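Help needed: design a sequence for this.
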């Protein structure tokens, strides 16, 4: 049986931590959909179109990975696209509480969908999109934490 997974998140913007997780998931599942939530309540810095475009360009070398934008419930997206696994990342204990709550809620809403947690390589454990955004806005260097394509977009922000 073919296993199709989704990796949902805001990806505002995609970081080397996200990328590490997508690559791991791509090795585990037949197909991985990186599902970018519009998440208007989070007031994203990049539009949904920009976030999707950046992720597509960064992940272009992975043949079994596809990037899509969505709004609405994650489990509904999973059902609609026949994705039986939701991949999420754990960086530290601090992620656990929220992720555990989310996974349990998702199970209540859709019993047939399993949440799977992956951890990144140690050097990526402290990277979050919110920190990257803050560093970029304050004029700091982000090249260690994001793909050069994303770094170029972040540099434009500094000038505007
Ligand atoms: N560096 C990382 N290593 C492993 N997992 C990560 C990393 N960054 C994010 N994730 C995981 O990816 C999923 C989507 O995360 P999300 O889009 O919220 O990114 P984020 O970096 O947490 O952004 P923000 O700081 O805006 O919340 C979550 O399960 C999150 O735990
Ligand atoms: Mg987050």
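Sure. Designed sequence:
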């Amino acid at each position: 049986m073919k296993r199709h997974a989704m990796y949902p998140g805001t990806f505002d913007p995609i970081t080397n931590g996200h990328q590490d997780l997508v690559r791991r998931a791509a090795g585990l599942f037949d197909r991985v959909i990186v599902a970018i939530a519009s998440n208007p309540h989070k007031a994203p810095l990049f539009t949904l179109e920009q976030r999707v475009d950046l992720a597509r360009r960064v992940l272009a070398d992975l043949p079994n990975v596809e990037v899509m934008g969505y709004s609405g419930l994650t489990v509904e997206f999973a059902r609609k696209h026949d994705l039986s696994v939701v991949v999420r990342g754990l960086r530290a204990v601090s992620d656990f509480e929220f992720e555990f709550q989310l996974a349990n809620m998702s199970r209540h809403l859709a019993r047939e969908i399993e949440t799977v947690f992956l951890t990144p390589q140690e050097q990526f454990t402290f990277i979050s999109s919110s920190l990257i955004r803050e560093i970029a806005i304050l004029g700091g260097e982000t090249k260690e934490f994001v793909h050069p394509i994303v770094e170029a977009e972040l540099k434009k922000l500094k000038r505007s």
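Residues 93-109 form the longest helix (17 residues).
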